[in-house]
């Protein structure tokens, strides 16, 4: 397996905005391969490049139809509202019901440089928004409402002893 460790909250690489890919070349293809294998090993449904420490604007995902690589993604339009329980490989062991737009129109490029244009909703739309957040340096804990934050703090106090310093990082974010 060709994988890299997934960065967890507290690692500054997760809060930096990624840089657009200027040239979709063999190095980007190799990076995407490592991202896909890392995503499957976790396992997860999506992974952004900065989650393995690379500040490049691409993500991979698999909603059940095989792996897809999206380079330089842009969300063109969103519509509606959908609440879904969302977790993150970079915030291990926690998940929250989060409301976001439902329908998503995404554009980007595949590894051959061809344009990708997907209009979708629900699960796939949620993956797109979650991964786009990563590429903008935003973690899902920033999408929580006040009640969820309070609940998260409670959870963290209980889990701090067993989960160690990663959770301390999350505690900082939550204002402890
Ligand atoms: Zn995530």
In short:
The model has no long low-confidence stretch (mean pLDDT 90). With 176 residues, this protein is α+β, with helices and mostly antiparallel strands.
Give a verbal description of the structure:
The chain is built from four helices and seven strands. It has 176 residues and is an alpha+beta fold. The chain has one domain: Peptide deformylase (Peptide Deformylase). The chain has a five-stranded antiparallel sheet, sandwiched between helices. Strands 4-5 form a two-stranded antiparallel sheet. Strand 4 and strand 5 form a beta hairpin. It is globular. The mean pLDDT is 90. Bound molecules: zinc ion (ZN). The site of zinc ion (ZN) has 5 residues, from helix 2. Zinc ion binds next to helix 2.
- CA gyration radius, whole angstroms: 16 Å
Q: In percent, how helical is the residue content?
A: 25-40%
Order of helices and strands: HEEEEEEEHHH
Give the integer mean of the pLDDT values. 90
Shape: globular
Q: SSE layout and pairings?
A:
Blueprint: H1 26-41, E1 46-48, E2 58-61, E3 68-79, E4 82-87, E5 95-100, E6 103-109, E7 115-120, H2 122-135, H3 146-163, H4 165-173
Helix pairs in contact: 3-4
This protein binds zinc ion.
